Amino acid sequence: MESQWDDAALTAALQKPDAYPHLAPAVQVIETHISRVFLAGDFAYKIRKPVRFDFVDFSTAQARRDDCETELRLNRRFAPDLYLDVVPIVPAPAPGSVRIGGSGIPIEHALRMRRFDQQDLLSARIAANRLEPTHIDALARSIAAFHRAQPPAAYSDGFGTPARIDATLAECLRGIGRIVQATHLASRVAQRARSEAIRLAGAFRARLCHGHVRECHGDLHLGNIVLMNGVPTPFDCLEFDAALRWTDTISDLAFPVMDLLHHGRPALAYRLLNGYLEQSEDYGALAVLPFYLAMRALVRARVLLEHARQQHAAGASMAPAQSEAGRLLALAWQCLNRRRGSMVLMHGLSGSGKSTVAGQMSEAAAMVRVRSDAIRKGLHRGVAPASGWYASSETARTYRRLLAVCRLGCRAGFPMIADATFLVRAERERFAAQALRLGVPFAIVTCEATPETLRARIAARARAGGDPSDADDRVLAWQMRVQEPLTEGELACVASPGSLVSLAATGLRR
After folding, report:
1. Exposure check for the chain: N or C terminus, fewer CB within 10 A?
2. Nearest-CA neighbor of 147 among 9, 270, 280?
3. What is the pLDDT of residues 387-397, one digit of tens each?
4. Last residue of a domain, one of 115, 149, 169
5. 90: closest CA among 34, 26, 19?
6. Burial 358-391 (b: 16+ CB within 10 A, else e)
7. How many domains would you assign to the chain?
């Protein structure tokens, strides 16, 4: 950039309405630690700051232009109607003035986007208590679909390896340490995070080898998701470092889950998590999710502190940012120190309300819910086997998978809900024995309804469509014939949904 056009001069010039080739009566500026966004009329123009950090180098005009082009390409994967083009910024005849899109030698480049209402950011909506469960459901579906569409990384690419994860963690911790003095909590979090990274090295390798490391968003916090025409739309993905963008898909999902927890909304956090897991069928991710939740909290703390340090140089206090960073560190500590979670079985005939109750409990008590109907479909990729969905061999296979998922989730510290009929005593006994071996609380929630109500609900569900259950009157009749009543010992384990809220409060809210 020419000496006349230092960062301050360009920023001042871009706040003048005549810098734009369209009406821009009042230009607003949104600032992050590496960029500025100028809101002008119907458009937004994003300019990189000429900064150089250990994680990004924007010290040259060419590097900043290249990054604009990369961001345009990557974000069109999520929001093609939002990201328009890269435009030059050239000097204007008037002293101290510039023109966007004019002729001449560019002094800078900007990424041009359509402008949206800042109140439609999910971060703003949750602050105003305007984020609805339906928004969360749509977000879970869209993230899962996006992840499925991305090609997996090869091991030789070097992304998602234990060494890369260690390096990212170390860089994040160093960044925090350079800004604030180490506290007892920060030191404990750092030590625990390093220990967990070592313990999970084998799991990280397995995730990579099984295709779960993909080119993701990379920075999917609530401030980078906006409601466009009522649809949650990610934008502003992490474009400047491929190693931070090519990551485990569950690390990508961990960011909005962590953000919801940080905002004190565990019900929405677990609604998002459960919706994503059911859509992606990636329940194996539970083994590494607590670590990635902690990592996302640490990343958020680091970015927050870096931005506050820039503002502090201009006279602003760092106290608010330090306070929030402290809360993020506390959340990271909670994620890294989870006890084994409880195991809850749903019990009842099809149409008895099990799934409704399980869904309510999963949000109220911060639990992971696993539906046998979704597991059954996932085992065959949605294509019915020749023997039918409810053949004894398919049912046995479904319950084995359900047990494996619950065992993994409990070990990772998640209270688990096994949402199935559990009409056969032997299946209930297997889960109870597993809970005993794991040393976790065990409970049964039983749901009942009259035969007329059961049939009416099954018929209504079939008419509505969209539910993974294929139970019909024939399946219901079979269930009524084979069901085995709870034993005296099992009846002692029956609990009401309300009582389980306190029992299961061993999750991320602790």
Report:
1. C
2. 280
3. 666 778 888 99
4. 115
5. 19
6. bbebbbbbbbbbbbbbbbbbbeeeeeeeeeebbe
7. 3
